[in-house]
Amino acid sequence: MTKKITYSVVAPIYNEIEIVDEFCKRVTDVMNSTGETWELVLVDDGSSDGSTERILELASVNKNIRPVIFARNFGHQIAVTAGLDYTRGEAVTIIDADLQDPPEVILDLIEKWKEGYEVVYAVRTEREGEGWFKKFTASLFYRIIYRITDVDIPLDTGDFRLLDHKVVDVMNSMREKHRFLRGMSAWVGYKQIGVEYKRAARVAGETKYPFKKMLQLALNAVTSFSYFPLQVASYFGFASAGLAIIAIPVVAILRMTGSHFFEGQTTTLISVLFLGGVQLISLGILGEYIGRLYDEAKGRPLYIVSRAPEEE
Ligand code: UDP
Ligand code: MG
User: Fold this and answer.
1) Does 178 share its domain with 239?
2) 272 CA distance to ligand 2 centroid (A)?
3) What is the pTM of this model?
């Protein structure tokens, strides 16, 4: 029998040596103030800066800390997934380790959980210490996702959220490889509510989410929750076919009346390039979906753990 605990906190850590100590201290203070049993599941996502050793040291003196050490870097979403797999709490909070999500907000989330909400997500009202490019792309990202996906994923909401253990169980049973956790936790349904908070600046270190990883996350979000990009190809197909059907009599009439309006290589070249471009883009979109299908078909494990927490 695994031990039952009231609160779990899950945090992924990738090369955050300057932050680990302070993060654990802040979480410990906040969680102790609840007076309930709690655990902090720290997932080391293949760090190479000594964070791994530090996590193990901290866990040896603080029994509430349970370390999950990955065999290599698997990415933020997978690290959080592994954390969820190991939690034993009635209510589970996902939080970033860089203290951009203030641990004190967990108490507000718990408040709502006690009122009976099963998913309590934290909504960013302000973002400190992030460049305009990150803010702009993030804002655009949330709005595009909101429009084109089939589930209502709340705006300006990251992974910082509290999940009831029922929701965690459902999410743990969804073993898709390309994961967009905020979408998945919206998809499950249940009673959901947002709590506003001010996103702080990073305490130290740099973002581990460069533009390439953000783009990857956005692609996962879209492909996991929408067929819209696939449909765009058909819309384009109908539009250009329609245009061609109209163009045929128009050009015939022009020619009969002696006009030279549509003659020449330029028009041919432009339309060939345009259609060629549209076709290649459609192929690329198809490729994104097929690549993901292929990853699912391979059936590899989501992550590899080199050291799992001890069971009590
Ligand atoms: N992280 C991770 N694996 C990665 C990238 C990031 O575990 O491959 C962790 C990171 O240590 C941090 C959290 O995910 O605790 C959020 O990352 P970050 O702060 O760099 O993202 P941002 O807040 O800039 O979007
Ligand atoms: Mg951050």
Assistant:
1) no
2) 45
3) 0.87
Question: 255 C-alpha vs ligand 1 centroid, how far in Å?
Answer: 63
Split into its structural domains, the chain has a count of 2
Asked whether residue 191 is domain-assigned, the answer is yes
The pairing of strands 157-164 and 5-13 is unpaired
Match 């803010």 to its residue by tokens.
Answer: 135
| Domain identity same for 79 and 95 | yes
Residue with tokens 């870097």: 73
In this prediction, the residues of the chain whose per-residue pLDDT falls under 70 are 1-3, 262, 312
Structural domain containing residue 139:
5-226+301-307
Does residue 312 fall inside a structural domain? no
279 domain-assigned: yes
For ligand 1, atom 16: residue with the closest CA: 96
| Sequence-distant (≥ 6) Cβ neighbours of residue 272 within 8 angstroms | none
CA of 133 to the centre of ligand 2 (A): 15
23 plus 48 within the same structural domain: yes
* Residue 123 shares a structural domain with residue 269: no
- Asked if 221 and 180 touch (Cβ cutoff 8 Å), the reply is yes
Q: Nearest residue CA, atom 19 of ligand 1?
A: 207
pLDDT digits (tens, 9 = 90+) for 208-233: 888 888 888 889 988 999 889 999 88
For residue 308, the SS3 value is coil
Residues with CB under 5 A from ligand 2 (ion): 96, 98, 100
Question: Euclidean distance between the first and final Cα of the chain, in Å?
Answer: 9
